[in-house]
Structure formats: structure tokens, C-alpha cells
Design goal:
Elements (H helix, E strand, L loop, with lengths): L1 H28 L10 E10 L2 E4 L4 E4 L2 E2 L12 H13 L3 E6 L10 E6 L9 H7 L4 E2 L6 H16 L13 E2 L3 H5 L5 E7 L2 E5 L2 E5 L9 E5 L3 H6 L11 E11 L1 E5 L6 E3 L4
Parallel strand pairs: 3-6, 8-9, 12-14
Antiparallel strand pairs: 1-2, 1-5, 2-3, 4-7, 5-6, 9-13, 10-11, 11-12, 13-14, 13-15
Length: 274
């Protein structure tokens, strides 16, 4: 309880300045936009869902780097997905947009993963930046890259602190690592989990980041051994996470206890001092 109080105090004292500085830096960094410098353009005909824009020429753009909750817990007209679709339609339908991404790498549905920009639309940066800032989406980091993920995470921290959009709903609250039952309730869904890492162990080709002593019940994050150098290069050498307070994001699975597979360093945030 004491260390949670200390962490909360540190966070409250520093968060406003850190997030404000990060958002300013993020705005400046838009000169090298998320998704790469190369741009293509088109006009938005309609919005297929909370992450899919359909252009007049038939191409479909998948909003990269974010996640909008869907499913049973997000049903209803006031659900995050419904609010996101309404906001996208209001801002983008009939508007010319530019987008950055790799047109040679569509997903299995034929959508082109991209970061989308609409000058003069009143959006705060890219479409994704605006959605995250307004609490219409969470950061998924997949496909974002390190610098872009940092921009988006800064905006998400601000939206979460302000309880904007989906962050006002307890169903999307950050889960405590020492409450595995609440994490397991989100099996098959994306979650944010934070707590102190108890130990980091290796077995075969897997690195286990353990938040408890009971592997069959407690929360664990896993990293493929082959990705260890990638994490070290990102300032997250797995062994150095021991005893650190961290936040993990990803899709919850069950292997005894709740478990999240971490494939990129951007899925882990170090919280507070060592």
C-alpha cells in the first residue's frame, strides 16, 4: 500500500508537466509523420467501422496504431466504437485526406494500414492522434514505431488522466497486476495492466516477466527470447525490469493465470523511478 501511495504521489506531481512536454514534442515531430514521410491522397466516401475509412476510389484505409473497443462490453449507441464512427463521419466524410503507410502491405481484408491526415479539419494531428486525445481509442502500438508510439502514448496518458471518452468507463480502467481475477475477466480483449515486476526468468525460447510467485494463477507477460535484443535496444532489457513498476498493454490470454504476449518494446512503459 505504501509503495502504491508513493507512486501515485510521484505520478500526480510529474504527470502534467511530462504529458504537456510530450504533446508539444509530438506536435513538433509531425514534420516526420507516423507511418513514414511518403504520402498518398484521396477523398473519404464513408466510414465502414471505427478503424476503417473507405475512399471514393474504393481503397480502404485501416487506422494503424490504435484500438477501439468492440464486442459485448462495448455494445450500444454510446459505446466507444459507435462514438468513434460518429466522430469520424462528422470530420472526414467528403473530405480530402492524405495518408502515410505501405500500400504494398494490405491486411487480409485488403485494407491498407495507414496514418491519416486531414488538413483544415480541426483534428489534433493525425486522425489517430485526435482519436486518442479525445478518448475515442486506445494506443495499440502495433505498426506505430517507437517515436510514433511515444507521441500516441503521451496523448493517451493525458486523456486517461482527464477521464475523456472511454476512460470515464471503469470497464476500461488500468488493471492491477496483483488482481489476476480482474485481468482474466478481460480474456480475449485488450487491457492495460500495471504493477511491480517480481522476477524475470527464462525457459526455452521464452522470457517470463512475472508479477507474482504463482505462475499458474498470477499475471505474467512473455517475451520471445529472439526479441531480447530488440527490447534491450529500446531501453527495456528484460532483466533490468525486475523490481520496476511497469505498465503492460496487449491482448489478455489464459495460460493458468492471465497472460499477455509482448512483441514490441512499446507495449511496456516504465513507471516512476527505480
Amino acid at each position: 500500500m505504501f509503495e502504491r501511495t508513493v507512486l501515485a504521489s510521484w505520478t500526480a506531481a510529474a504527470a502534467a508537466a511530462i504529458v504537456a512536454d510530450a504533446i508539444v514534442a509530438a506536435d513538433a515531430a509531425m514534420a516526420q509523420p507516423c507511418g513514414g514521410a511518403a504520402r498518398a491522397s484521396g477523398v473519404v466516401r464513408t466510414v465502414a467501422d471505427a478503424r476503417t475509412l473507405v475512399l471514393e476510389d474504393g481503397r480502404q484505409l485501416l487506422l494503424e496504431g490504435i484500438e477501439v473497443p468492440r464486442g459485448a462490453a462495448a455494445a450500444g449507441a454510446d459505446a466507444p466504437a459507435a462514438r468513434a464512427v460518429a466522430a469520424l463521419k462528422a470530420k472526414l466524410v467528403g473530405r480530402a485526406v492524405t495518408w502515410s503507410g505501405n500500400p504494398a502491405s494490405p491486411d487480409r481484408h485488403g485494407r491498407l494500414p495507414a496514418f491519416v491526415f486531414a488538413d483544415g479539419s480541426g483534428l489534433e494531428g493525425s486522425v489517430q492522434h485526435d482519436m486518442v486525445s479525445r478518448g475515442l481509442a486506445r494506443v495499440a502500438v502495433r505498426g506505430a514505431g517507437r517515436a510514433c508510439a511515444a507521441e500516441l502514448l503521451a496523448r493517451e496518458r493525458w486523456a486517461r488522466a482527464a477521464k475523456r471518452g472511454l476512460w470515464a468507463d471503469p470497464d476500461y480502467a488500468v488493471r492491477r497486476a496483483d488482481d489476476p481475477a480482474s485481468i482474466l475477466a478481460l480474456r480475449g480483449r485488450m487491457a492495460l495492466v500495471e504493477g511491480r515486476v517480481l522476477s524475470v526468468r527464462e525457459s526455452g525460447g521464452t522470457i517470463y516477466v512475472n508479477f507474482g510467485r504463482r505462475w499458474s494463477q498470477d499475471f505474467t507477460a512473455t517475451i520471445a527470447k529472439r526479441n531480447e535484443e530488440l527490447f534491450a535496444a529500446g531501453g527495456l532489457a528484460p532483466k533490468r525490469m525486475e523490481r520496476r513498476w511497469v505498465r503492460v498493454r496487449g491482448w489478455v490470454e489464459e495460460r493458468g493465470g492471465p497472460w499477455i504476449e509482448v512483441t514490441s518494446p512499446e507495449q511496456i512503459e516504465l513507471l516512476g523511478p527505480e
